[in-house]
Design a protein that fits this description.
It is a single chain. The protein is of the alpha/beta class. 17% of the residues lie in helices and 29% in strands. The protein has helices spanning 18-28, 72-75, 189-197, 236-247, 261-271, 292-295, 341-359, 410-413, and strands spanning 8-9, 15-16, 35-38, 46-47, 51-52, 62-63, 67-70, 84-92, 106-110, 122-125, 154-157, 167-168, 179-181, 202-206, 210-216, 220-221, 232-233, 250-257, 277-281, 308-314, 316-317, 321-327, 332-337, 369-374, 380-381, 387-395, 398-401, 418-422, 428-429, 434-439. The strands form 8 sheets. Strands 1, 2, 15, 18, 19, 20, 22 and 23 form an 8-stranded mixed beta sheet that branches. Strand 22 and strand 23 form a beta hairpin. Helix 1 (18-28) packs parallel to helix 7 and helix 4 packs parallel to helix 7 (341-359). The two termini are 41 Å apart.
């Protein structure tokens, strides 16, 4: 890559709207190519095709209780005083391939999940019987290893049973030929369970995007290390990596990179090999040490048509300075976020999260939004011409601001579960006003 080309920069006087910037991102990001994955590797991924049921679930009539498989006529009218006495002809355990046959006056001891034996019409729970002990009702069966004789002799049944009682019918869950899961489904534990239950060992999905998060700043120190004068702990890379995981991505956090153009440039180049999306934080404003712009100068290489990173100003607060484009031979998308903690997090929720979910092939890209009644001691102030996103606590249709408007107030962010949206044409919002909120959790 050439380092002589300048970064793409927009007209310094042009102020992008939030919607324009988001539309630019989503018109560029494309879903990742599908791959075939083993079930557990596919967790969190999105199906790209419908999955049909090859075999009914359950595949055979089976017992939902530990008890005795019986014929209905043989237990009709049974009671405590006059129990039905049946000959026990054997055991039917889960996995039994050739169960015993139940004839007139007979019963088979049956375990939960075991196939209903031929001739049987219902299952009576063991608690309705004497368990073959010749005494009153029992609470359970003795283990076969301790009492193998329990599969023989006679059992007294103290209650009648209707046909199909405690029997799970073949296909009562899903029938062969039905659609088990639709394309576009995100595979969580229940969906993985269903795929395994119908015999699928692999599935075709869009993989979870690999998001590399890189923070910049010579003042940043890894948490757990001692702080020197003028230094702060790097929180942005942790916050954004966690947010990327929450959005469904596989996140790689890179340790803070000092304000050195060559170091940052080489770090970015090294990370491209494992990135479907790169996110930087810091170094996008107009200061003398904002090196992300300089480091991404190579991204506009003339040999890479369409590549480049635009650095722009947005009509929003916090998060005015932003960058977006693609870099490297594969035109890997890159979003450059501001360095202030709240600015970077708000920017992630508004721009990066939708990009991650677009890469996954999802159609539901955004955090849910709601209308809420504002509760505040003082009117909220907002600069005209900027869409402001204030941290808030939302509950029962009401929202209250948390902390001030400063983009460095990360403690308030930890106690917020919503963003209060103040439109561009509004400068003051009084308590009791209905506002739009972005729900974060």
């Amino acid at each position: 890559m050439s380092s002589s080309a300048a970064p793409h920069t927009t007209d310094a006087d042009h102020l992008w709207s939030v919607d324009e910037h988001l539309e630019d991102i989503l018109s560029t990001v494309r879903p990742l190519e599908p791959i075939e994955l083993q079930l557990l590797d596919a967790q969190g991924c999105v199906l790209v095709e419908d999955v049909m049921v090859p075999v009914s679930l359950p595949p055979f009539d089976n017992s939902s209780m530990d008890g005795y498989a019986v014929r209905v006529a043989d237990v009709e009218g049974a009671g405590e005083e006059f129990p039905a006495v049946l000959e026990v002809v054997g055991d039917v355990a889960a996995g039994a391939a050739d169960p015993v046959r139940v004839g007139p006056g007979q019963a088979a001891r049956i375990m939960t999940g075991a196939p209903l034996p031929p001739g049987a019409e219902a299952v009576v729970p063991v608690e309705w019987t004497d368990g073959g002990l010749g005494e009153g009702p029992v609470s359970g069966m003795r283990a076969r290893s301790l009492a193998p004789e329990g599969a023989e002799g006679h059992v007294r049944v103290h209650r009648p049973a209707e046909a199909r009682a405690h029997v799970r019918a073949k296909g009562s869950d899903v029938q062969a030929g039905e659609r088990a899961l639709e394309a576009g489904t995100v595979l969580g534990p229940p969906q993985i369970a269903l795929l395994a239950a119908i015999g699928r060992g692999t599935v075709r999905v869009r993989p979870r995007p690999r998001v590399v998060v890189l923070s910049t700043g010579s003042e940043l120190v890894q948490p757990g290390e001692p702080l020197a004068d003028g230094q702060i702990f790097d929180s942005n890379s942790f916050a954004l990596a966690a947010a990327a995981r929450d959005a469904g991505a596989i996140a790689y956090r890179v340790g803070a990179v000092a304000d050195d153009t060559e170091t940052l440039r080489s770090t970015i180049e090294d990370q491209l090999i494992r990135a479907d999306l790169l996110v930087t934080t810091g170094g996008v404003s107009v200061g003398a040490y904002d090196v992300v712009k300089e480091a991404l100068a190579y991204a506009g290489d003339e040999d890479e048509a369409g590549a480049g990173v635009d650095f722009r100003r947005l009509a929003m607060q916090p998060g005015k300075p932003q960058g977006f484009g693609s870099i490297g031979p594969d035109h890997t998308p890159l979003l450059a976020l501001p360095g202030n903690p709240v600015s970077s997090y708000v920017s992630f929720e508004l721009f990066v999260r939708p990009a991650v979910r677009a890469l996954m092939g999802l159609t539901d890209l955004h955090r849910p939004r709601a209308r809420a009644t504002l509760r505040t001691k003082e009117a909220l102030r907002s600069p005209r011409g900027r869409r402001q996103f204030l941290r808030g606590a939302y509950a029962d249709g009401e929202v209250s601001p948390v902390g001030g408007a400063g983009s460095h107030l990360i403690a308030a962010l930890a106690h917020a579960d919503a963003l209060i949206v103040v439109p561009e044409d509004v400068e003051s919002v009084e308590s009791g006003t209905e506002v739009e909120v972005v729900l974060l959790g």
